[in-house]
Automatic annotation (TrEMBL), chain A:
Lineage, highest ranks first: Bacteria, Bacillati, Actinomycetota, Actinomycetes, Micrococcales
Pfam family, one: Fer4_11
Entries under SUPFAM superfamilies matching the protein: 4Fe-4S ferredoxins (SSF54862)
Protein name: 4Fe-4S dicluster domain-containing protein
Keyword flag Disulfide bond: no
Ranges that cross the membrane: 388-406
Domain 4Fe-4S ferredoxin-type residue range list: 30-59, 201-232, 233-262
Automatic annotation (TrEMBL), chain B:
Cofactor: [4Fe-4S] cluster
Lineage: Bacteria, Bacillati, Actinomycetota, Actinomycetes, Micrococcales
Keywords linked to the UniProt accession: 4Fe-4S, Iron, Iron-sulfur, Metal-binding, Oxidoreductase
Spans through the membrane: none
Pfam families referenced in this protein's UniProt entry, alphabetically: Molybdopterin, Molydop_binding
Name of this protein: Molybdopterin-dependent oxidoreductase
Domain Molybdopterin dinucleotide-binding: residue ranges: 726-846
GO biological process, one term: anaerobic respiration
InterPro entries: Asp_de-COase-like_dom_sf, Formate_DH_Act, MoPterin_dinucl-bd_dom, Mopterin_OxRdtase
Length: 408, 964
């Protein structure tokens, strides 16, 4: 019994099988791979998502004071959100350092920081090789997002992997990754593999979306059964079942799901006479989030955001395929000297069992407003049950002692 | 572009403004290409580029000229290509004088008219030939254009279509060694000798290291094995020298051998749906379909004069058949009424009496010369430069028809426009009757889009238009039917052109004409003979005897075999990379123009990696995955018979088949009205002195010295520091031009809800403007308020000891109450100074002041604008000095302007505006001359893989700044 609980509430698993979809209906698990290194910030994903899902406008029609981002965050009405982050050289250098630390697992490096910054990444395989098996065990290649994070390492110790990268699970072994890099570099010998000079400035853009976690906090805590695991392994709210209790909002480690209000839009300051936008608010007072376009998937179509993305920054497909594409891409970027590249959500040993939507980031997750070490609240259920059981037993014992003692 | 090894994006914010097309840049990058973005701002394009090179707006010729100099000095130009395919060996006649000799003017300048006589730029001919430059047949027809006081000098700009201007008869003299001092190559070399990295640093604000990176990357990626591509948009065209910016890039690309080859060329990015189509089958005043020029009063009085001006039977290339294209157009329009006896109804065509661009038309309204105005898909109250002039002009109309999806600002200025607030207009006093007619959008009607790469793609109707909304086709068709009904039975000869039109399109049950029938008419058909009624499959089937008709010769083939070729959608995975079965590209479904240049003079590909078409000696024809852009059986070594004309006169190594000499033009012996070689002048309101010449600004620019078009003092004039900053306008991904299709939609409005400016932290500190706080920006024309986006993406540049602060302003917002979001319009700040080739306004480099806080409301706003003008001492003459070469100092002011008029201008009181309109107008009496468009110069910008129309640059200007 306990083993079954552990299996379902944390760690690697097949979420479709876990909910007993029969063979006739089950599909392969679907997901996104969002490669932020080629995002141009056009926000077509946001618009296509809103159009397809008929989500209401939710901005207050004022600048958010956040570069070109006037959306802010994911929410009940916004299921894709493009973040814009302006960074100067210092921060870029830090991102490279932290990425390099992920790759090399903090092995001592030769030379002053400036020299290291300019050193070709060809040294990475050499320096990282001794690191194999140390720490969380993710090895050198994946560039996982939280491996270098002490807190994450602590979690990694209590769980079975390093943090979030996924290589610890053996999906891509270090040796495979190294040989892939070598192959890449051998095959592209005319390519400039020296790391580019650190630019003075960069502008990161990243399209965020519901993670469709392997262990979904929102689903696990839903008291009405409104949330369910689909035959594609995604997590979807049934608006006609949801009673709007909001329990799921606290259950999501990413702050994705939200309860939809009545959609009233307040006019911006100084434009008091602005007409209120007349719009229909579907499913008011229920929880809402990305469905990974469930209604399109059942028709064999691609989700609206991935369909519209002009640069293929948003890729859609079988989850396994997305994860291996993500690994291949991060290796390619490392080979080009972009040590700041790392994956997010591609480690099925992380706190949510890996995510259905994986990301390639160019800085630490916090920079994009993503939690560095997300974990599903139910992950701790077995421990909690155990502790509660011990406590209950203790109390029973104490009571018994008290009564017994009272008799005396 | 996917085949490029290096992509230079300059004068364009491609990722933001052409995100779908940008996928090919992404693809090239994934294949290993370097992407360099040269732009005043760090934009979303820069974010995914390998390198950003910030540049001072308006100095692109210096940078590109220095690249030309770099390639020549370091022997990095493509010698075999240049010798064989360009006019580098041609000898220019000895009367030619360069700007280097004349302190910034070329020979032939007339300081009275501000126009050039191009005769001295012409080739020197062998034996008995005559040079033609500036001659009577040029569409510009030179001095024949008496510009009237309002800039009515004709825009000869794009009227050459894909053909170059005539060069006269005979063979130009050549020096194959390129050593002759008057050879084009040597002239070019001397002209750009002073364009050094040092000049780039002190003019553009670009460091020598950045220049070195740029020069190395481009030249290393331009050779037999590799190609470099340039991409531009209105960041090049919207300058008073816009066409010359593009010419400079064309020269560079020819020198590096990048034209007509896969991954090479110059991409003229068109801003929105079918802007390319609207130049092919134009909405421009001076063009007819297929780049035939509008005939002009006085010079094109007969059919023969007209077609000879386009191309004579004696000249080389496909423009020699201009008469064929013209007859087919007239037959398509007037059918049986067009006969040989009446010169194919040539007299039914209106004649141009001068320039009738959008700005000249607005000025005509202010003079009460225009009664009515149709606005279809245009929002000039927001999208046109000098927005106040546009709105004031519309208040003079008797009637105004606005066809749009929603009540755009051009439909509501009479009740809530900025001039109502300031009191300059009073609703009750406006006599204009405004009609609003709902329009069907692109999903509600079928038709075609012609995009950047000349590709005609069909779109189908997805849903019926709501309520009273109609397609443009139906609207125009019914309007024609109604007018013809009213004129029925008229015996007035003036009504014949309308009554004789072929106006017989089949309609559906809703009364909507079948757009395929229009496509068939454009394609053309046999009118008589055994195939009568059948569609033509190629323009080479066209005859000048009335037996065929076709509405736009370059589109012939789009309806070949009676099949809508534009609707083909064979997926990319089912065909090769050329994808010739996806839609249809004009001409003849060719994907890369001038692709003869992709092979060497002997007909072999320059390299295996870059092969496209080649000569198959056994079969005796050109072959390859693309459609050869050359006579299919013309052998590489072929020489024309003496006396041959037209396509038959093309030698086997004349790849630029529309040019009168078959070569790409490094030097334009005719056609560019403002000079045969691009040369740097400062933008009109620049604070920086021209480092090259005493001549500060382009002497040929079109100016309008009017009280509603005042200019800031430039370098050397007192008062320039009152407007110390440079502003440049642009678009955002989230909005569509003047906002009619985006600010009315909640999903788009919420993504960019408020008008803002982008400024550097340094400028914010200097002016006291707070991040995301309000700021007011003042130009001599207007003052607007914006939120301030303070960002390191904007960098001050050091130029000649001066720190230049540039301010970025998106122009999508307008003042009104109907849209979801509104705001002040950046275009109100702009004045009108136009490129003489294209009539496009200078919108990318203008002077302004900036202060923290919101702007005053009501009449106080006018006081504020006036205060700045007074402080700067602005008069009508300010900024309108044509010649600043020392020895010509006298007589430089425009006629009618008193040079001693030191008194600054004061805003007219409300209601008095009308009386003020008769100021002196300086006009560019465009000596027009020939074509202006970039293509005229041989180095057509269309050489790219997705090569663009020859007239790429043209459209934008003619319309408005909202277009591109």
């Amino acid at each position: 019994m306990r083993g079954s609980l552990t299996h379902e509430f944390s760690g690697p698993t097949d979420p479709i099988a876990d909910v007993h979809w029969d063979h006739e209906h089950a599909h392969s698990r679907k997901g996104f791979f969002t490669d932020t290194s080629i995002c141009i910030g056009c926000k077509a994903c946001e618009v296509a998502c809103k159009e397809w899902n008929r989500n209401p406008q939710d901005g207050d029609l004022q600048l958010l004071d956040s570069s070109y981002d006037n959306t802010g965050s994911l929410g009940a009405n916004t299921w894709r959100h493009v973040a814009f982050i302006e960074q100067s050289q210092d921060r870029i250098e830090q991102a490279r350092e932290s990425g390099r630390a992920l790759v090399s697992l903090g092995m001592p490096q030769v030379g002053p920081p400036a020299a290291r910054a300019g050193a070709p990444v060809t040294s990475a395989p050499g320096t990282s090789a001794p690191g194999a098996g140390s720490g969380g065990g993710c090895g050198g290649s994946c560039g996982c997002a939280s491996g270098a994070d002490p807190a994450a390492e602590a979690h990694a110790g209590s769980q079975s992997g390093c943090g979030s990268c996924g290589t610890g699970s053996g999906r891509v072994t270090e040796a495979q990754a190294m040989s892939a890099i070598d192959a890449a570099m051998a095959g592209q010998s005319d390519l400039d593999v020296a790391p580019p000079d650190t630019p003075e400035f960069r502008w990161l853009m990243s399209s965020d979306v519901c993670k469709h976690c392997t262990h979904a906090g929102c689903l696990d805590v839903c008291p009405t059964g409104a949330l369910f695991r689909t035959e594609f392994g995604t997590v979807v709210v049934q608006a006609d079942v949801c009673n709007g209790c909001g329990t799921c909002v606290a259950g999501c480690p990413f702050g994705v799901i939200e309860r939809r209000d009545d959609g009233t839009i307040s006019p911006p300051d100084g434009h008091a006479e602005k007409p209120k936008v007349d719009q229909e608010i579907p499913n008011p007072r229920t929880a809402n989030k990305c469905t990974l376009c469930y209604d399109r998937l059942v028709e064999g179509q691609t989700p609206a955001c991935a369909q519209t993305c002009p640069t293929t920054s948003i890729k859609f497909g079988d989850h396994d395929d997305m994860v291996s594409k993500a690994h291949a891409r991060v290796e390619q970027l490392h080979a080009q000297g972009m040590s700041e590249a790392r994956l997010y959500g591609a480690n099925d040993n992380d706190g949510v069992g890996g995510t259905g939507s994986v990301f390639l980031l160019l800085d630490e997750p916090e920079v994009y407003g993503l939690p560095p070490d997300p974990h599903v609240p139910t992950r701790d259920l077995p421990t909690m049950f155990k502790r509660a059981g011990i406590a209950a037993a203790g109390m029973l014992a104490a009571s018994a002692v008290a009564f017994l003692g009272g008799r005396r | 572009m996917a085949n490029s090894d290096c992509i230079v994006i300059q004068g364009s914010n491609m990722a933001e403004c052409h995100p779908v097309g940008f996928q090919w840049v992404s693809e090239a990058k994934a294949r290993g290409a370097k992407v360099i973005h040269i732009d005043p701002r760090f934009t979303r394009t820069t974010a995914v580029a390998d390198k950003h090179v910030p540049i001072r707006a308006g100095t692109d010729i210096v940078l590109l000229g220095a690249l030309i100099n770099y390639a020549i000095t370091n022997e990095l130009w493509f010698k075999e290509y240049v010798s064989a395919y360009t006019n580098a060996p041609m000898i220019i006649n000895e009367k030619f004088k360069d700007t280097e000799d004349l302190e910034g003017l070329f020979s032939g300048f007339d300081s009275e008219t501000g126009a050039y006589d191009m005769a001295t730029w012409a080739y020197e001919m062998e034996d008995d030939g005559t040079s033609q430059a500036g001659g009577e047949r040029g569409q510009g027809d030179g001095s024949a254009d008496e510009g009237d006081a309002e800039g009515h000098g004709a825009s000869s700009g794009e009227s050459h279509g894909s053909g170059g201007p005539p060069i006269g008869s005979g063979r130009p003299k050549r020096d194959e060694t390129l050593q002759h001092p008057r050879s084009v190559f040597q002239i070019l070399k001397r002209h750009y000798a002073r364009y050094t990295p040092q000049l780039v640093e002190e003019t553009c604000g670009i460091s020598p290291a950045d220049f070195e990176y740029l020069a190395k990357t481009i030249t290393e990626n331009s050779n037999r094995d590799r190609t470099t591509c340039f991409a531009y948009a209105v960041g090049w065209t919207q300058h008073s020298q816009g066409a010359q910016f593009i010419r400079t890039a064309a020269i560079l690309q020819l020198l590096l051998g990048n034209m007509g080859r896969p991954g090479g060329g110059i991409m003229a990015l068109r801003g929105h749906a079918t802007i390319q189509g609207s130049t092919d089958i134009p909405t421009l005043f001076n063009l007819l379909p297929g780049y035939l020029p509008m005939p002009k009063v006085g010079t094109h009085d007969t059919f023969q004069q007209w077609v000879d001006a386009v191309g004579t039977k004696e000249q080389k290339g496909f423009w020699a058949d201009a008469d064929v294209y013209a007859v087919n157009l007239l037959k398509a329009w007037w059918g049986d009424a067009a006969t040989k006896d009446n010169d194919w109804a040539f007299d039914y065509l209106p004649r141009l009496s001068g320039a009738h661009g959008t700005y000249q038309t607005a000025m005509g309204m202010l003079r009460d010369e225009v009664d009515g105005y149709f606005l279809l898909g245009q929002n000039p109250a927001v999208g046109s430069a000098n927005g106040r002039m546009q709105r004031m002009a519309m208040s003079h109309l008797k009637w105004l028809v606005v066809r749009d999806f929603s009540l755009i600002e051009s439909a509501t200025w009479w009740k809530d426009g900025p001039e109502i607030e300031t009191g300059e207009l009073v609703t009750e006093d406006i006599d204009t009757e405004v009609f609003f007619l709902p329009a069907a959008n692109h999903t509600e009607k079928a038709g075609s889009f012609t995009q950047t790469q000349r590709m005609v793609q069909w779109r189908h109707q997805a849903v019926k238009p709501p309520e009273d909304a109609r397609s443009e086709l139906q609207f125009m068709f019914e309007l024609g039917v109604k007018i013809r009904e009213k004129l029925a039975g008229s015996t007035d000869w003036r009504d014949r052109p309308l009554l004789d039109l072929t106006w017989d399109y089949p309609v559906d049950e809703e009364g909507d004409p079948d757009p395929v029938s229009v496509l068939a008419e454009i394609n053309g058909r046999f009118e008589s003979g055994p195939d009568a009624g059948k569609p033509l499959s190629s323009y080479t089937q066209m005859k000048a005897d009335g037996s065929t008709s076709g509405g736009c010769w370059i589109y012939t083939g789009v309806y070949a075999d009676g099949v809508n070729q534009a609707a083909r959608r064979v997926p990319g995975k089912d065909q090769d990379e050329i994808a010739s079965q996806w839609a249809w590209a004009w001409p003849a479904n060719r994907r890369i123009l001038y692709n003869r240049a992709s092979a060497d003079p002997e007909g072999r590909p320059w390299s295996e990696r870059k092969k496209l078409i080649w000569w198959d000696a056994e079969a005796g024809k050109w072959t390859g995955p693309d459609v050869p852009d050359f006579p299919a059986d013309r052998a590489p070594g072929a020489q024309p018979e003496p006396g041959a004309g037209g396509p038959a006169a093309l030698a086997g190594d004349d790849p630029f088949i529309m040019q009168a000499d078959g070569k790409g033009w490094l030097f334009a012996p005719n056609g560019m009205v403002d000079g045969p070689l691009p040369t740097h002048y400062e933008p009109p309101e620049s604070h920086v002195g021209n480092p090259l010449y005493a001549q500060q600004n382009s002497p040929s620019r079109v100016m309008f010295a009017r009280e509603d078009n005042l200019y800031a003092p430039g370098a050397g004039e007192p008062g320039g520091d009152v407007y110390p900053y440079v502003f440049t306008t642009y678009r955002l991904t989230e909005h569509h031009t003047a906002g009619g299709m985006s600010r009315t939609l909640p999903y788009l409005s919420e993504l960019q809800p408020e008008m803002f400016c982008e400024i550097s932290p340094e400028l914010a500190e200097l002016t006291g403007v707070e991040p995301y706080g309000w700021a007011t920006i003042v130009s001599p024309r207007a003052a607007i308020e914006v939120r301030a986006l303070v960002t390191e993406r904007m960098k001050p540049l050091k130029v000649r000891g001066r720190t230049v602060h540039q301010i970025g302003l998106p122009y999508h917002w307008g003042v009104g109450s109907e849209a979801v979001v509104s705001g002040d319009s950046a275009n109100d700040l702009l004045g009108l100074v136009l490129d003489p080739n294209t009539q496009i306004q200078e919108a990318k480099s203008n002077a302004c002041a900036m202060v923290p806080g919101r702007r005053p409301r009501g009449p106080e706003l006018l006081d504020m604008i006036d205060k700045y003008r007074s402080e700067a001492g602005i008069t009508l003459a300010t900024g309108h000095t044509r010649i600043t070469v020392p020895d010509e100092q006298s007589g430089t002011l425009p006629p009618g302007v008193d040079p001693s008029a030191g008194e600054s201008f004061h805003w007219p009181s409300a209601g008095a505006a009308e009386a003020e309109e008769e100021e002196a107008a300086v006009e560019h009496e465009a000596q027009a001359a020939q074509d202006a468009r970039t293509g005229a110069s041989g180095a057509q910008p269309d050489g790219g893989p997705n090569g663009k129309s020859p007239h790429g640059t043209g459209t934008a200007g003619h319309e408005t700044s909202e277009e591109d």
